[in-house]
Write a structure and sequence with these properties.
The protein is built from eight helices and 21 strands. It is rod-shaped.
Length: 347
């Protein structure tokens, strides 16, 4: 019953979120600013809106493009990019702090600073024309990877939902790559820190268990911050080859064992020699491949401990020369097919 509840929650989150890109504010207005949709183009040609909760107004951020229009003062009007420190430079007024404020708040502040000094009763309109400060990057095994503009700090689950949900080949983990923000005083410091330095890494890597999250472990629903890169790698695979009935590659789930792997490959053929099984395993740190010899028959019979399969393992059931030589004789008497179908091992 947990999974349907999660699906309902995901649908509710999307329904409660309203796309908004052009946020308009005007001085001397009491009503809530209206939201209009202006697409932000993705690299793949799609368009993604800023998702804002219905009970909150968009707050301007650094790198956003805002239009400020002052009636009867075109020399003060124009398009302005918000600096990294959250300021815009206007004629006459100089620097105006706009980051973290709504369009209405900025229009009221500008009107207040102009009133009596430049205009008797200024009417100021502020509109966010391009949102660049709320970028979230989603890549990997989702249906719509790309860059998304979202107000606030969405959770991992919400961001996955906005990206169209998980694709069928998703792995069991999600990784969040977060750039460590350096204080302004460190701007002149070297970009690369020594490998042994503590706390000076440029990036922080966070991980979450996707399978656990979908089963109700909401402690894995990590908050995501603007600028984060969320990567959901596709599932790992392993391979079964040799004398098995259904050789091929198979998705690797947590805790997959040799018994399960051979069952997915529909067991060994009559010619297979289970007691001479091989597992080829690559060491991810060195790239070298090792050869593990194992008695698959003893494992399948419960006489030896089962073996946990790792990503990219190649499980090989070799051919038995004796069984290959005996196969024509058994087939002649009609036993070959029944032995293979029964999955019994003849010794």
């Amino acid at each position: 019953m947990i999974r349907p509840a999660i699906h309902f929650a995901l649908a509710f989150l999307l329904a409660a979120s309203s796309p908004a890109l052009a946020v308009v504010g005007q001085s001397k207005r009491a009503q809530t600013p209206q939201y209009q949709q202006q697409p932000v183009t993705q690299a793949d040609g799609g368009a993604v809106g800023v998702l804002v909760s219905s009970d909150e107004d968009y707050k301007i951020g650094s790198s956003d493009i805002v239009e400020i229009r002052v009636d009867d003062a075109p020399e003060l009007s124009g398009l302005f990019r918000v600096s990294a420190s959250g300021l815009v430079a206007m004629p006459f007024l100089g620097r105006v702090a706009v980051a973290g404020k709504t369009a209405d708040e900025v229009s009221d502040e500008i009107a207040g600073r102009l009133r009596g000094r430049y205009l008797m009763n200024p009417n100021v309109l502020v509109a966010v024309r391009q949102v660049n400060s709320r970028a979230f990057f989603v890549q990997g095994a989702v249906h719509r990877p790309g860059v998304y503009q979202i107000e606030g700090r969405p959770s991992l689950l919400r961001l996955i939902t906005v990206a169209g949900g998980l694709s069928e080949n998703h792995g069991s983990s999600a990784f969040i790559i977060r750039e460590n923000k350096q204080p302004p005083s460190d701007a002149a410091a070297p970009a690369a820190a020594p490998d042994n330095a503590e706390g000076d890494a440029r990036y922080t890597l966070l991980s979450a268990n996707i399978n656990g999250l979908l089963k109700g472990r909401f402690d894995q629903n990590l908050p995501v911050e603007p600028g984060d890169i969320v990567n959901i790698p596709p599932t790992d695979v392993f391979f079964v080859s040799g004398e098995v009935n259904a050789p091929g590659s198979f998705p690797l789930k947590d805790g997959t064992t040799l018994q399960q792997a051979l069952s997915l490959a529909q067991g060994a053929t009559f010619k297979g020699s289970l007691k001479d099984g091989l597992i080829f395993r690559e060491d991810p740190s060195t790239g070298k491949r090792e050869e593990i010899r194992a008695d698959f028959a003893a494992v399948m019979g419960g006489k030896k401990e089962d073996i946990v399969i790792k990503p990219n393992d190649v499980i090989m059931v070799p051919n038995s020369k004796f069984k290959s030589a005996m196969a024509p004789i058994l087939n002649a008497f009609g036993y070959g097919a029944s032995v293979a179908a029964g999955g019994r091992v003849i010794r």
